[in-house]
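2.7 Reproducibility. Because tokenized structures are sensitive to small changes in the input, we list the exact sequence used for Solute carrier family 2, facilitated glucose transporter member 5, including any N-terminal residues retained from the expression construct. No trimming or masking was applied before prediction.
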Amino acid sequence: PSEEIITLMWSFVVSIYSIGGLLGSLSAGYLSVRFGRKKTMLFANIPALLSAALMGLSRLCGSFEMIIAGRLVSGVCGGLALNIHLMYAGECAPRKLRGLIAITASTAIAVGKFVGFALGLREVLGVESLWPILMAANALPALFQLLTLPFFPDSPRYLLIDKKDKEGCIKAVKQLWGDGDHMAEIDDMMAEQEAIRGEKAKSVCDLFRDKAVRWQLVTLFLVASCKQLIGVNVV
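Resulting structure tokens (single pass, no recycling of outputs):
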């Protein structure tokens, strides 16, 4: 193929991750309610392992299409995992630590980018013979989560509000926060359950039409837009 076609194909390889991320993000809300936060996080590791296999074996198979497919599937994993992680971590954390726990997602992204850049150096894995290993490296955190997450309970809020399982919620709270009096936070969840009883889940369109969260939405949109323009994505 010509140089222009090669440039187009590599641009497609880079940008298709965002398309997968959009698909993963749009399905995160439904899956988190249908299967629970914990099961959805475990499910998100399947596309991660599939993408690692596709990209890691692409050179052996002589197929650049496998890299494109692997990037797309990896994006689906990223879109799912980021949304569900924030939800699961925030709902599992006690109120006084909720803000601190929520920023672990941003910290993990920063650490992950740094590790990716470091592994991509020519002195490490960024050479012709080793790049398939570099592109399959995301299998390691996926395997780690598959081995460790089953030992954690599901989100107490999900168990109480979505599953109507008060005993399961209390058991999860004790496992996460230890023994003690946690009834105040459980009562808050029950009050929330009563407040939303009978209401249907809101769609993305409903969110845009809801005037109560208009300014919060505008603020988040501006912050996210500026984040795309600071240059790190260009690098």
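The chain has a mean pLDDT of 88.
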